[in-house]
Design goal:
Elements lengths: L11 E10 L1 H17 L5 E8 L2 E4 L19 E3 L7 E3 L3 E7 L9 H17 L14 E3 L2 E11 L2 E9 L32 H16 L2 E4 L6
Parallel strand pairs: 1-2, 1-10, 3-4
Antiparallel strand pairs: 2-6, 3-5, 6-9, 7-8, 8-9
Enzyme class: transferase
Protein name: Octanoyltransferase
EC number: 2.3.1.181
């Protein structure tokens, strides 16, 4: 079933594939896009797919006890941002998705939205015959006991920002300097542990297809570079 626009037609969603982007640049872009949609709620939705240079981010209520290095004297890029959730790590080889959606056109329910994002990623894994799953009480997607996808979002006036991070083929050593998502007893994993030759480039297309299916939108790749 398609999400519908104000004219009753299937909802249109821009797809931005931006490759490797500095976290600060992408964050400011998201905030600008969300601000525009607060003022003009009928602007088109977007899905931004990219990778980040190595960076740590903490949600609004994240506990610093889950960070294993000195935040006041750090060699790493660290940002405290407006999403929910604890500390996480981004780096090349991890596919990050930032949906900028107006949930008034879908379902005005945060838990529904989180489950939909999980469903997108579970379908991507299923396309490789990998059994992605949810764990009760947690947000994200697991594969054979390893967390391969993290989700952290911000919703304001039903406009979404931030999103999901799928570990495709990253160097996982950066996760050793934190307690990822504040979960002490469950390891982080990647798809490359199950499919050694997998690449972010091929996974991008599968994420786009699954996103369009789950949210019922027509994705159109954007040609104008906004970054």
């Amino acid at each position: 079933m398609f999400a519908l626009d104000i004219k009753g037609k299937p909802r249109f969603c821009w797809l931005f594939d931006r490759g490797l982007v500095d976290y600060q640049v992408a964050w400011e872009w998201q905030r600008s896009l969300v601000a525009e949609r607060r003022e003009q709620p009928n602007l088109e939705d977007l899905l931004i797919l990219l990778e980040h240079y190595p960076v740590y981010t903490l949600g609004t209520g994240a506990k610093t006890e889950f960070v294993k290095f000195d935040l006041d004297n750090s060699d790493y890029q660290v940002y405290r941002i407006e999403r929910g959730g604890e500390v996480t790590y981004h780096c090349p080889g991890q596919l990050v998705g930032y949906p900028i959606l107006n949930l008034r056109h879908y379902h005005q329910d945060l838990h529904w939205y989180l489950r939909q994002l999980e469903e997108v990623l579970i379908r991507v894994l299923a396309s490789y015959d990998l059994p992605g799953e949810r764990l009760p009480g947690y947000t994200g997607v697991w594969l054979e006991g390893c967390k391969v996808a993290a989700i952290g979002v911000k919703v304001s006036r039903w406009i979404t920002m931030h999103g999901f991070a799928l570990n495709v083929c990253p160097d996982l050593t950066g996760f050793t300097k934190i307690v990822p998502c504040g979960i002490v007893d469950k390891p982080v994993g990647s798809l490359a542990q199950f499919i050694p030759d997998i690449s972010v480039e091929e996974v991008r297309g599968r994420v786009a297809i699954a996103f369009a299916e789950v949210f019922g939108v027509k994705l159109v790749e954007a040609e104008i570079n906004h970054l």
